[in-house]
Each structure stands twice: as structure tokens, then as C-alpha cells.
Design goal:
The protein is α+β, with helices and mostly antiparallel strands and 249 residues long. It contains five helices and eight strands, in the order H-H-E-E-E-E-E-E-H-E-E-H-H. Strands 1, 2, 3, 4, 5, 6, 7 and 8 form an eight-stranded mixed β-sheet that branches. The chain is rod-shaped, with a radius of gyration of 35 Å.
Length: 249
């Protein structure tokens, strides 16, 4: 409607000053057209630059999320710095009910924050703010020209249990590599320990049958694995601390 008013203002202004027969009519009609023209242009500029007749409308969505790490002992939220920045980040996550990875938007209108809480389920709270008209009149007035539903910004808040950890993609890769090396070393240690124990038992008691040696081997494996499991959390925490010390890029 504001475009129609602007167009009418131009027509009345030009027609009033050029077509009216008397000076008084020219001033009256032309002045009216000028008022309509200036008012329409002012409203358009005000709406475009300062969003006159509009207000912020915020919608909130909460999504349960899960770690993208295949290791069930490691709950991690991954981020990728944008343009080697330490402040602008894109976070990678997945919904708790899906396996597909998702990521936040790399945009100046998107802000991200991470908070640790005493909660059991990790969540992503997304607040989407847009411009909306104050009333139907304003929406009708700025039909075809206004900024109804124009995005103001996205605010992503990750609420994570205290057991979670946040790492950059580079740090996560380092941690994954370190965990694999540690698992390989633990496997080698297990094999060596079991082999050494069985040999010692066989040397100390040559009369042991193959079945008895197999039982000793099985018992030793369980014992070594139990110790390894008890140490696993401590070792993982140490590796996480080391990963955090790595460069984010």
C-alpha cells in the first residue's frame, strides 16, 4: 500500500502544480501531493532502516542432542573455528534420535554459547528472533516492501552435562589418534602379560595339561582386562586434558 501512496503522491504533486487552472488550486493540490509523497517516503525509509511499526518476535526450540563420538565413554561437542578465529565457531552435533551429524550456521546473525550444568541430557536451545509488524494495519501498509519475518538472529545455547567435553575438530582428531594408540598399547600389554604368565606357570609346573593352561590364560586375561577398565577413565581424562592443550586449528 505504501508504494501506491507514494505513486499517488507523485501524481497529485506533479498534476497539481502543472494541471490546476488557478494558483490556489495548484498550491492546495500540489501541496497535498507533496505531503503524501514526503510522508510515504519517510515511512518507507523509517521501516527499511529503523523498522518502524515492527517489533522483535522470538521463538524458542529445544532439542535433545547426543555426542558424535563413537566411543560411549566420551561425550564430546565438536566445533570448528571460522576463518581461524577463536570467537566465531561452527558446532557439530547430532540429535539424540538421529545418527546424521548437524552443524550450526556460520553467520554474523548466529551466536553460540556453551554452558555446563548438573543435567543428565545434553540439549540445544535455539532462539530465533525475527521482525514482525505491530498490527495488521502496519503489515497492510508495507505490503510488498516490508521486512515481515526478516531474521534478526539465531541464538544457540548448548546445555551440557558436566561429564561432557568441548573440543575443536583438530583437538578431537588428536584425541582420537591418542586413544587408538593407547588401545593398541593396552592390547600389546595384555598379550605380553598373558603370554609371560602362562609361560611361567608352565615352567613352574610342567605337568599342567593344555586345558589347565587355557584356564590360566583365560583367568589372566580377565584379571588384566579388569585392571585396564579400572584405569580407563583416568587415562581418558588425562588424554582429554592433553587434547585441550593442543592448538584449536
Amino acid at each position: 500500500m505504501i508504494l501506491i501512496a507514494l505513486f499517488l503522491g507523485i501524481i497529485i504533486f506533479v498534476g497539481g502544480f502543472l494541471l490546476m487552472p488557478t494558483k490556489g488550486q495548484r498550491l492546495t493540490i500540489g501541496g497535498l501531493g507533496l505531503i503524501i509523497l514526503v510522508a510515504s517516503a519517510t515511512l518507507m525509509i523509517g521501516n527499511d532502516n529503523w523498522h518502524w511499526g515492527m517489533h522483535h518476535h522470538t521463538e524458542t526450540a529445544t532439542t535433545s542432542i547426543a555426542s558424535i563420538s563413537p566411543d560411549k565413554q566420551l561425550n564430546v561437542l565438536i566445533y570448528q573455528p571460522v576463518r581461524k578465529s577463536n570467537t566465531e565457531k561452527v558446532y557439530v552435533y547430532r540429535k539424540a534420535t538421529q545418527k546424521q551429524q548437524r552443524h550450526t550456521t556460520a553467520s554474523l546473525k548466529t551466536t553460540n554459547s556453551v554452558h555446563y550444568r548438573h543435567v543428565h541430557q545434553a540439549k540445544l536451545i535455539t532462539k530465533t528472533t525475527t521482525w514482525r509488524y505491530n498490527s495488521g494495519f502496519w503489515r497492510w501498509l508495507f505490503s510488498w516492501t516490508g521486512t515481515h519475518h526478516e531474521l534478526v538472529g539465531h541464538q544457540n545455547t548448548f546445555v551440557l552435562p558436566n561429564s561432557w567435553v568441548t573440543l575443536s575438530t583438530h583437538q578431537a582428531k588428536w584425541l582420537s589418534s591418542a586413544v587408538k594408540k593407547r588401545e593398541a598399547a593396552a592390547k600389546t600389554t595384555l598379550t605380553q602379560t598373558v603370554t609371560t604368565t602362562v609361560k611361567k606357570e608352565a615352567a613352574a609346573n610342567p605337568s599342567l595339561t593344555a586345558k589347565e593352561l587355557a584356564q590360566i590364560k583365560q583367568k589372566t586375561e580377565k584379571s588384566v582386562q579388569k585392571v585396564a577398565q579400572q584405569q580407563a577413565v583416568t587415562i581418558l581424562n588425562q588424554l582429554i586434558k592433553q587434547a585441550k592443550m593442543q592448538s584449536v586449528h
